[in-house]
Structure formats: C-alpha cells, structure tokens
Specification:
Elements: H1 2-27, E1 33-35, E2 41-44, H2 46-52, H3 56-59, H4 71-84, E3 86-95, E4 101-109, E5 111-112, E6 118-119, E7 122-125, H5 137-140
Antiparallel strand pairs: 1-2, 3-4, 4-7, 5-6
C-alpha cells in the first residue's frame, strides 16, 4: 500500500520541487541562467530577461554565448564550469539588440538536476560598492580562484 501511495504522489512531489526551484531562481536579483552541456539555455530568471531584453520563451533553447560581446570567451568558460565545478571572476559584457551593454563578472558553478546532470551558470553584475575592498571576496577568504586576475 505504501508503494502505491509513493507512486501516486510522485507527480505532485515533482511539481512541488519544481515550484520551489523556480522560487529560488527568481529570488535572486542577478541574472541567472541554466545551460546544457551544449551551451543552450534551458532556464532563466527575471534578472536574465532584464539584462538581455529578451523574453524567457525566446531565450530558452538559444546559445548562451551569443548574448556576450565576446562569445568565444563565454563559449570557453561554460565547459570549464562543468569540468571543474566552478569558474570565478571573468569579466564579460552582455549586449542587447538595442545597443545597451551590461558588464558582468562571470561566476559559474555546476548544480545537478533530478537525473544528476550538471547544469548552471550564474553571471553576476559587476558592482563596486563605495568604501568596499577591491580585493575579490574569493581571494579575501582564501577560496579557490581560477579567474584571469590570479
């Protein structure tokens, strides 16, 4: 009887997990994007929509690297995140069709979907708050750093 209950509740549990995951993604004000190993966008949050100026439905399935002024570098960084589990500290610039640009620091970490497939990239806006140290947080706390300014 318990196994029948588990089988019947599996779709509801999966839907609840998906809603929870969506709420976590949307809670972040920075641009978040999940990509496949092939570099295609599989999910985005509102921050990514704002930075690119492209609606979610039009972003999904497109090449992630195509939204940067240096797509070659963006294309090289994504596989490194999958292979190494993390990429930190690469300056990139998003470009929009309207000509606006947004500087970001490309920080990527892999995360797993329900099947264990590694996914995920988190480009973060380049911010320099006044009065704060210019030394990256990763360096201040001794975290692993593999960015260009090692």
């Amino acid at each position: 009887m318990l196994s029948e209950f588990d089988d019947a509740s599996a779709p509801a549990r999966k839907e609840t997990e998906q809603r929870y995951e969506r709420s976590l993604i949307e809670a972040n004000p920075d641009a978040l994007v999940a990509i496949s190993r092939e570099g295609k966008i599989t999910d985005v949050n509102a921050g990514m929509i704002k930075v690119t100026g492209v609606p979610r439905k039009m972003l999904i399935g497109t090449e992630f690297a195509g939204y940067f002024t240096d797509p070659k570098l963006a294309r090289e960084l994504s596989p490194r995140a999958f292979a190494d589990g993390v990429v930190i500290g690469y300056p990139l610039t998003f470009h929009r069709e309207d000509g606006n640009r947004t500087d970001v620091i490309f920080n990527a970490g892999d995360f797993n979907d329900a099947q264990g497939e590694a996914l995920g990239v988190c480009p973060r806006r380049h911010r320099k708050p006044p009065g704060r140290s210019k030394v990256p947080v990763a360096r201040r706390i001794g975290a692993r750093r593999d960015g260009p300014d090692q």
